[in-house]
Amino acid sequence: MEFLAPKTFNRISYVAVIVWILFGVILLGIFAEMEISDSFRCTAESDKIDLVREKCSDQYEKQYSKSGFPVYGFVIVNFFGIGFVCVIYSQAVKSKIDQQLAANRRRDENLSTGRGLFLAYICQLVTRLTLGIVFIVLQTQLLYPANFPSDFHCQIPGGDEAANASSAGNTTMYECHNQRAASKTFWTKAVSVINGIFCISNSN
To answer: Is the pTM of this model over 0.90?
Structure first.
């Protein structure tokens, strides 16, 4: 990749960064496809089905994505944010590494450049590790602390009684089903697992 110079990383780190970005692209595609798929269903009268599904889908997202921040948006910030740190580091030290390599070929000692490269490497490593931990905490404790259930009981104030829906006062309850809930739960957990693996690999 043009923006990630291999010489700015050791082999293992470079492969890890490339794999990290590839995972980000794959997961973004998975979550984007789930976002646009019409997988949320509610049982209601045919003339009310679209309105009921819209309102119940909104309730579902508010309850299980409490921040209102979609998972695909979190994936973008998570994976490409850390990838961006790697790109900035690679571009910032590329010329210094060229200077260091040239000095080594001349058998010159360039201790200041060597120390600067080491500090830059440590800084980007700590930044990546910190971001990984922050994203894990955000995901599991704040943004998406619960699984996404398949079945959902939706209450709409002022709704009319519909097929297979129960009414109580001015509120109508509808039975809804999210066909992609299990997949969304699995891939959301996969994001935190990949973050965890990435943090462990960075700490070694």
So the answer is: no
